[in-house]
Amino acid sequence: MKKNLVIAFALLVSISFGSTPSSAQLSINNTQFKTLKAAFAHRQEAAWLDLSNRGLKVLPDSLFELTNIQYLDISKNQIESISPNIKSLKRLKYLVISYNQIKKIPAEMRELALLQSLYLDHNKNLEIDQAITVLAELPSLKMLSLAGDNISVVPQSITKVKRLETLDFSENQISDLPENIPDLKKLRVLYINNDAYFNLEKNIRLISKMKKLNELHIENDSITSLPSTISQLKQVEYLFLVGNKINALPPEINQMKRLRYLDVSDNPLPPLYNDDRVLDPKLVIRLNRRD
Q: What is the pLDDT of residue 261?
């Protein structure tokens, strides 16, 4: 997912800074920095700052003087708290705080009116309810990752983050989604990967009520079979079931009328599985193991 974020941001910078491929590429290179010193040398143009994996325990105060930053990556450090001064980064659109030791996020983050994507994953002591209270007031937040945050129960308050389009719950211990999850009416993409606790059959009823959800990832979750109720997911167009233990597909999968792409790589299905009684010939299906 982070790779997709990088690509998307690169395209954004291309459009913003240049109209031709050559000038766009030059602009992207000139706006990406990996040190504060380099960013300060071009502080007016610095849109992208990567301070990941630097052994940081706190963020330097000087960072908050780079008010044109749009993409900030501070992942893989030992940061326990985010300074309230983060509110100074008014143009911030993408924030990656993955793999730190964050417990709470500052109330001042609600002032980041342009923030669209937030990676809070792999902060195992994160107080989810407190974080959601702040995130609910972000007017532009569309993508949120809470992967690997030691979540066993998804709080119902998650639906207060009303503008979410992509939500990542991977690598947690979630068995059930909250009853009000369909209230995330704009959600299009949901990740529940690497979670052996997740009960797909029990949660299909709720997922089916998420009318705009067109991409569902339930990968490496030790699923042994697909229930016949999979047919209820009529809104899903892209279904990823990679790395499970599925050895057959139920005929009801053809009742998923919008399904266009099915990825069942790394499952114990027959190598040349092609049963016309089960699979719509128009459906793109991936059966091969990933490289």
A: 96
Q: What is the maximal distance between C-alpha atoms in the chain?
A: 64
Which of 10, 72, 83, 85 minimizes the C-alpha distance to 39? 72
Residue/partner pairs of 39-46 with CB below 8 Å, 24 or more apart: 39/66, 39/69, 40/65, 40/66, 43/68, 44/68
Helices 2-17 and 21-31: crossing angle in degrees, nearest 10, is 120
Rounded Cα–Cα distance for residues 83 and 72 (Å): 14
Instruction: Give me the pLDDT at residue 235, please.
Output: 97
In a domain, 90, yes or no: no
Summarised one tens digit per residue, pLDDT across range 221-277 is 999 999 999 999 999 999 999 999 999 999 999 999 999 999 999 999 886 565 555
The predicted model scores a pTM of 0.88
Residue 16, in any domain of the structure = no
* Residue 265 placed within a domain: yes
In a domain, 191, yes or no: yes
